[in-house]
């Protein structure tokens, strides 16, 4: 690998990948409460490998009038109204999240952030709904582009379930800690980095490697 570390702005056409996971009180992004969110930014290290960087994590107070499905909270084990969660209002959470992401996006000299998640459509729908609900004008996230680690894992590892994909990649996964937004985001970040780094290690990126092989 080259001694010159690659630049994140060059890897994804100016997009800044942000790994995100949400825990919710249902499946409807418009009506159901968002209860927890975590986000991890990425960077290239001195060895030229993509690695997790800064972490954002908050428990969220359900927005006024939010629906809470009992089956959903039974599944994720979250008591939405437990004071010990240390939850804060959704408006503050998303203003702080956007500020956090914009800061790291700017440092990476990228043009727009893109959500990376396992079954990304779900997480993206809740993020978009919350941003719209609070009329946040300077969202760093692309409104519809996302990178789905479910699809990437199917291609690279032959697995689609997060725990199975992590196991195939040699990433430790504790089932008892699953369905925590922070834990799932950490594992998804490691999985995404593994896939991207593996693709580079086999000479499939940067594109000059492919062109060189073709010439040979």
What does this structure look like?
It is a single chain. The chain has 216 residues and is of the alpha/beta class. It is built from 8 helices and 6 strands; from the N terminus they run αβββαβαβαβαααα. The model has no long low-confidence stretch (mean pLDDT 94).
Sum up the structure in keywords.
globular, 216 residues, alpha/beta
Task: Provide a quick synopsis of the model.
The protein is an alpha/beta fold and 216 residues long. It has helices at residues 8-11, 70-76, 90-107, 120-133, 149-157, 162-168, 181-201, 207-215; strands at residues 15-24, 34-44, 50-61, 88-89, 112-117, 141-148.
The count of strands amounts to 6
- Spatial ordering of strands, largest sheet: 4-3-2-1-5-6
Which runs of at least 5 residues are low in confidence (pLDDT < 50)? none
The coarse overall form would be globular
Number of helical stretches of at least 4 residues? 8
Secondary-structure class:
alpha/beta
β-sheet strand percentage: 15-25%
Compute the separation of the termini in Å.
Answer: 19 Å
Radius of gyration: 18 Å
> What share of the residues lie within helices?
40-55%
Tell me about the largest β-sheet.
6 strands, mixed
Taken in chain order, the helices and strands follow as HEEEHEHEHEHHHH
The mean pLDDT is: 94
What are the SSEs and their pairings?
Blueprint: H1 8-11, E1 15-24, E2 34-44, E3 50-61, H2 70-76, E4 88-89, H3 90-107, E5 112-117, H4 120-133, E6 141-148, H5 149-157, H6 162-168, H7 181-201, H8 207-215
Helix pairs in contact: 3-4, 5-7
